[in-house]
Amino acid sequence: MAVSGEQMDNLEQGMDDGPKRSMDTPLLSGALVVAGGMLAYFFFGKDSAVVESEPPMIVEATPEEEQIQAVIASDSVSDELLTRARLAVQSGMLVEPSSNNALYYYSLYLEQNPENAEAVAELNEAVSEIGTQIATAVADRDWQRGAFLAEQINNAGVTSSAVDAYRSDLESFRESQGNEAIAAARRGAEGEANRILDGLAGLPRAEPAALLETRSAVRDALVAYRVEQQAAAEAAAARRARQQREQQQQAAAARARSETAAPPATSSAAVVDPLAGVRTALREGTLTGSSGAIAQLRDIPVNTEGRDQVQAQLVALLGTEARDAASRGDLASAESLQGEIASLDPDAAANVQTAIDRAFIELAVAETVSAATLRRVRAVAPVYPRTALRRGLNGRLKIEFTEATDGTTRDIEVVESSAASGVFDRSAIRAVSEWRYEPREVRGQAVAQRVYAYLDYNLE
Length: 460
What we know:
Blueprint: H1 5-16, H2 24-36, H3 63-72, H4 75-90, H5 102-112, H6 117-139, H7 143-155, H8 161-186, H9 190-201, H10 208-260, H11 276-284, H12 293-298, H13 307-327, H14 331-344, H15 346-365, E1 369-370, E2 376-378, H16 386-391, E3 395-403, E4 409-417, H17 425-432, E5 436-437, E6 441-442, E7 445-446, E8 449-457
Parallel strand pairs: 1-8
Antiparallel strand pairs: 2-5, 3-4, 3-8, 6-7
């Protein structure tokens, strides 16, 4: 079949126009039909069902694309494709750049020449080298790179044990990270547990059901930890109150005995300040511990002159430390100090609790959290863009948005994308604008929160 100059120009334009442009017609009858029934993306919520969108629309081949296919069918163009494939291998261009790499050209060539054993062997050798790169990515914990390479092998229609090994290693890593998040929650390390959950949400092909199960386990572990800590704090407060009553009773008994005893002999010795040790501990900033100001003050009778003034000073210092701990995100320390204040001055403890709550709210809303940590009540899947579907494009996007106090989404933007020219941006933003969340509460107050989420567009 003779190839005209105009046909060759059309072919070159098809090869350079975008990812897999020259493959559109031969793949449209098979791959794109299958793609219409596959999951357009992976995305996750919290404790809610995913609402699927309609399947992506199948695009018919244009006359120009049919003409390009006719040109590709010629022997001369097939030879050119094989030459390009070999040159790409020699240049190390196994999977990149898009539509100009060894896998791309071998796939086009073998569509027309499936019985060419030499080309098949060369393709297998290239796939083996890509498998080595996948193994390196796994060793470096570069899961995104591994996912990209595995995706290219799948798109080429070949199999590789390296892809199966990658997926197995990814699942093992996902499981171990989930266990670490739960263990951190059991220690009360909520920040660490949330950071691990964020990392899990960012892994390729995140499974919403698995993420939901891990989040639930983390939440249960945190609740159990807080209940345990609250019980310990209440027991400590009761113990301190009992000790204080005993001290008051002992002081009252001592006063009664002194009133019935003979007057003490006059002494010229200097009067000792019973609060001297407490004052020293306050100056040195030693508030807690067996020799701290709190412990020493409890040994001083409540009717001792100057005790109220020293206690007020101690409560003020404890309040400052509690607020500082809250601003650092150290919930356990802040609430422990607040418990100490409550044993000395309940009214002051209430004021400190308000300040602690405010500090935690400010700290919480200052960061951008993963959508995996929120409870989504409505989800809408994005529609696969017609251009991306026609070109056989896959992609992953990172979206940031603000969850308002009523659970709606606003200020939506695409901050990262693996696809060129923003082909998925409009589809993703439109879908996220329809998402709804259960309003987030921090310390009992609804807050607006900046959130990020990943959206995957896959034709597999």
